[in-house]
Specification:
heterodimer, A: about 375 residues, Rossmann fold, 2 domains, five-stranded mixed sheet, globular, B: about 400 residues, alpha/beta, six-stranded mixed sheet, two-stranded antiparallel ribbon, disordered N terminus
Chain lengths: ~375, ~400
């Protein structure tokens, strides 16, 4: 009896999966779409918030049971990422919540548990902490503790993170490390508009709860050709965005643009740098990084969050475990300082291009 | 769509808070010398589980001091200097102006002593000045200089003043309320007959931690007064869209509540005085201050995308707190028009002087970056950007 039900249940869930285009079939879908639309691929110059806006439009269009909610999203959001959604999809699908992060995420988990796609927005990543309990104790463990009876895979939490130049203590934090410590959720951080759209659509359609951090510094600043059609980028796959042979640099989000500048400068001194965008922080793509380190023998990780206990520590430890004998120099981490995110001292705190350049040189000349 | 709703019902609420038909009171009942100053129309309190009435009229010195303090703060926290400094990029980060809401800070100060504690959210410039902060400290802190009250490390949202019991200055809304209840808990132990005022806004009124704090305070009879400064907009969201029950004074349910006209400094003063006496005997009380802010939420918010300019100017005309006191003073010949104008000129000069002085104050030393992360002398190692080279021992 029970096994009979289980069989039917699986069939039902598979058909739901097929209908709802979960990214278990992601790679196949990407190829399919690319083949279909190769003739008519149009791309437009968009900035990050417009790319995310497009992704949200597509997500709501393709799945009638998806919802976008958060503080002030109805009029477009404080960063304009949700413009036009209420007008197009109605107040029943795109709505404001009161000022209660814990409530927002808890509510999203419940909505997702009933098979919907809940896209919750936390206005700034600095405010995500009241929701921390819900994310860590509820969302991450739901499938596990219910023996796969229930899950909140439809939940995606979007939050702008990162320094912006004048944000101060509570508008600049990078809390990704806290969430990387929680098995059961995924943490995804895009580096550019084209990546953001594809990654966000993958996250929304992924059958696991995802925390999607958007680098707010790049909202207006980063402009790129973004394809207009519906496309998804695979999660848990890192990308080598610059080939090199002397040292591997790993980063994510806005920090990559700084690292790229450092790479270009290092090139002038004859150091060839390989730059990897991790994209998904957990579960992260160890193979790509390992292959790269086996090629170069040196690793440098850079992120905005404070260095002690930051995600760079995990990458460093894992790579040392795997590539100890190959490493020519200790793994370098160029990160934020071990202080609260400062106000006037932000230029000192940040891992700037020069700090990275210095670390590249000292690692190569070890 | 939202604005249409506003113009119909809420707008009339804003221009005339409390019940639509309010009595025009001229309080002539004298209960104690000196002879009372008859006042212009006042709005009665609305209450839950408690009885508070408008006490007899206040004295002339009080009115004068209220005008002086309000006017200073209006200039200081309000509409003239910070926007200019912000545009000149001398103030960076976030700056939340308090203009329109001064009556709350002023009235509250008039009712309490420096031994009572105040804790509020990020709209704290005026509250800080009320607690004895100088204009120099305010502007220096806004510009991130050493002469600021938090040594330039806090910024606009984090003003503190230990010797006057001002506990700040908090960026995360709602987080200051359980803190305030903790302060009250300590005060109850010390038996000093002092209380804590924990202020929050209508947006923060929907935070879960507020209700946790309410429950604990009521359970243990803590001398805390929770003041909801209801300026009707949580950033850009009108209160009726965020709260099922915008009657924030009733949110306490088992905790008594009082709704006060927050643009009337005298009503605020009397409510706070009543509240202080109440909580020392009976445990917490909620005061809802019906107030309004003329500027947007912060310097990056024009303030007119979610409400009409008519509404803003309407409230400014009908309910402006400083004008109200000015009218009372003039109507009863407590000072001449010229005297008041001279006061304002002096205050403006003071503000300009303070700004000039603040501009000369230096930025904090780079070594300050690592200072006060932990207690001094702990000597832990903090790592700089590169673990190998930059290490600092925390001072």
């Amino acid at each position: 009896m029970a096994s009979c039900l289980r069989r039917y249940g699986r069939r039902l869930s598979v058909s739901i999966c097929e209908k709802r285009e979960l990214s278990t079939a992601c790679e196949g879908k990407v190829i399919q779409q690319q083949q279909q639309q190769q003739q008519q691929q149009t791309a437009k110059l968009l900035n990050l918030c417009s790319a995310i806006n497009q992704a949200l439009h597509l997500a709501l269009e393709t799945d009638p049971r998806s919802y976008v909610f958060g503080e002030d999203v109805s009029f477009g959001g404080v960063f304009r990422c949700t413009t036009g959604l209420t007008e197009r999809f109605g107040k029943n699908r795109v709505f404001n919540t009161p000022l209660c992060e814990q409530g927002i995420v808890g509510f999203g988990i419940g909505l997702a548990a009933m098979g919907n796609r809940a896209i919750a927005e936390i206005q700034f990543a600095d405010y995500i902490y009241p929701a921390f309990d819900q994310i860590v104790n509820e969302a991450a463990k739901f499938r596990y503790r219910s023996g796969n009876q229930y899950d909140c895979g439809g939940l995606t939490i979007r939050a702008p993170y990162g320094a912006v130049g004048h944000g101060g203590h509570y508008h600049s934090q990078s809390p990704e490390a806290f969430f990387c410590h929680v098995p059961g959720i995924k943490v995804v951080i895009p580096r550019s508009p084209q990546q953001a759209k594809g990654l966000l659509l993958s996250c929304i359609r992924d059958p696991n709860p995802v925390v999607f951090f958007e680098p707010k510094w790049l909202y207006r600043l980063a402009v790129e050709e973004v394809p207009e059609h519906d496309y998804m980028l695979p999660l848990s796959e890192a990308e080598v965005i610059r080939e090199g042979s002397d040292i591997t640099l790993v980063g994510w989000g806005a920090q990559l643009s700084i690292m790229e500048q450092a790479c270009t400068d290092a090139e002038k001194d004859g150091i060839s740098c390989e730059l990897i965008d991790l994209k998904t922080l957990i579960p992260w793509d160890k193979e790509t990084v390992e292959t790269s380190v086996r090629k170069t023998g040196r690793l440098l990780i850079s992120h905005e969050a404070p260095v002690t206990g930051g995600f760079g520590a995990e990458i460093s430890a894992s790579i040392v475990e795997r590539c100890f004998l190959r490493l020519e120099a200790p793994v370098a981490r160029v990160c934020g300082l071990d202080t609260p995110f400062p106000l006037v001292f932000e230029p000192f705190y940040m891992p700037t291009k020069n700090k990275i350049l210095d670390a590249i040189k000292s690692t190569v000349n070890y | 769509m939202a604005l249409a709703h506003l113009t119909s019902s809420s707008r009339s609420n804003l221009l005339k808070p409390s019940p639509p038909s309010y009595p025009t009171l001229i309080l002539s009942a004298v209960r104690s010398p000196p002879p009372p100053t008859p006042l212009l129309s006042r709005l009665p309190f609305r209450s839950l589980l408690t009885n508070a009435s408008l006490l007899p009229a206040p004295s002339r010195p009080l009115l004068k001091s209220l005008f002086l303090s309000s006017a200073t703060w209006l200039r200081c926290g309000g509409w003239r200097s910070p926007p200019i400094l912000y545009k000149a990029k001398l103030i960076r980060g976030f700056c939340h102006l308090y203009d329109g809401q001064e009556a709350v800070a002023v009235g509250m100060e008039a009712a309490i002593t420096k031994k009572d504690c105040i804790i509020t959210a990020y709209r704290d410039h005026c509250t800080f000045v009320g607690r004895g902060g100088t204009l120099l400290e305010v502007f220096s802190e806004l510009m991130g200089r050493q002469a600021g009250c938090s040594n330039g490390k806090g910024g606009s949202m984090h003003f503190y003043r230990k010797d006057a019991g001002f506990y700040g200055g908090h960026g995360i809304v709602g987080a200051q309320v359980p803190l305030g209840c903790g302060l009250a808990f300590a005060q109850k132990y010390s038996k000093g007959e002092t209380v804590t005022f924990a202020l929050y806004g209508d947006g923060a009124a929907n935070q879960g931690q507020l209700f946790e704090a309410l429950n604990i305070s009521a359970l243990w009879d803590l001398p805390v007064i929770l003041i909801c400064e209801n300026n009707h907009y949580g950033m850009g969201t009108a209160e009726w869209r965020a709260s099922k029950s915008p009657a924030y004074y009733k949110r306490g349910d088992y905790v008594p509540g009082l709704k006060v006209d927050g643009m009337d400094a005298l009503a605020v003063k009397q409510a706070c005085k009543f509240a202080k006496e109440h909580v020392l005997r009976n445990g917490p009380i909620i005061l809802e201050m019906d107030t309004y802010r003329y500027h947007g939420h912060s310097m990056s918010d024009p303030g007119s995308t979610y409400r009409t300019r008519d509404e803003i100017s309407g409230v400014r005309q009908e309910r402006d707190p400083i004008e109200r006191i000015r009218k009372v003073i003039l109507a009863h010949d407590l000072a001449t028009e010229k005297e008041l104008k001279d006061f304002e000129k002096e205050i403006r000069k003071e503000v300009d002087q303070a700004i000039a002085q603040a501009k000369e104050s230096p930025m904090p030393e780079p070594s300050e970056l690592f200072a006060n992360v932990y207690v001094k002398g702990l000597g832990t190692e903090a790592f700089g950007a590169d673990r190998k080279e930059v290490r600092a021992v925390l001072p």
